[in-house]
Write a structure and sequence with these properties.
The chain is of the alpha+beta class. The protein has helices at 26-41, 124-136; strands at 46-48, 58-61, 69-80, 83-87, 96-101, 104-110, 116-122, 146-149. A 5-stranded antiparallel beta sheet has the order 1-2-3-6-7, with helices on both faces. A hairpin with a 5-residue loop joins strand 6 (104-110) and strand 7. The longest helix is centred in the first third of the chain and has 16 residues, at 26-41. It binds zinc ion (ZN).
């Protein structure tokens, strides 16, 4: 396992469409393990492959501690509801912004071994899944957000 460098906003890789994963091999497993370690090290709740410089359709999310989901070649098959809330991004360090996201998402994706799975996400997990799958289309939350700002530190 190894930490990967996180690409930050301004790098054009973050605005590119990712290609599907075709090889479900040890290299993919290593990439996913590294992404999880990098996400945890940065105290993030999700990370997508372009954020570590890889233009492939891979993202991982951990909306609750210990609840890691890996999505390879994800396709959103159902999205319902709307919720508005503040979110941040490891590629836009220090900032948050207000974004409207679905309250429910159903996603078809493959596992690291290539098996097809269906996942359902609600609440905060739906926010994270929407944010991470956006990354695979080259979409940063900053293109959808209002009121982007640096949050005030509590206690000041
Ligand atoms: Zn992000």
């Amino acid at each position: 396992m190894a930490l990967r460098n996180i690409v930050v906003e301004g790098d054009p890789i973050l605005n590119k469409h990712c290609r599907p994963v075709e090889k479900f091999d040890r290299k993919l497993a290593q990439t996913i393990d590294d992404m999880i370690e990098t996400m945890n090290n940065a105290n993030g709740v999700g990370i997508a492959a372009p954020q570590v410089g890889i233009l492939r359709q891979v993202c991982v999310m951990e909306p609750e501690p210990g609840m890691v989901t890996e999505l390879i070649n994800p396709i959103i098959v159902d999205a319902r509801g709307e919720q508005e809330g503040y979110e941040g991004c490891l590629s836009v360090p220090g900032y948050i912004g207000k974004v409207v996201r679905p309250t429910y998402l159903k996603i078809r994706a493959q596992t690291r071994t290539g098996a097809q799975e269906t996942y359902e996400f609600e609440g905060f997990a739906a926010v994270v899944a929407s944010h991470e799958t956006d990354h695979l289309q080259g979409i940063l939350y900053t293109s959808k957000a209002e009121d982007i700002h640096i949050p005030e530190e509590t206690g000041e």
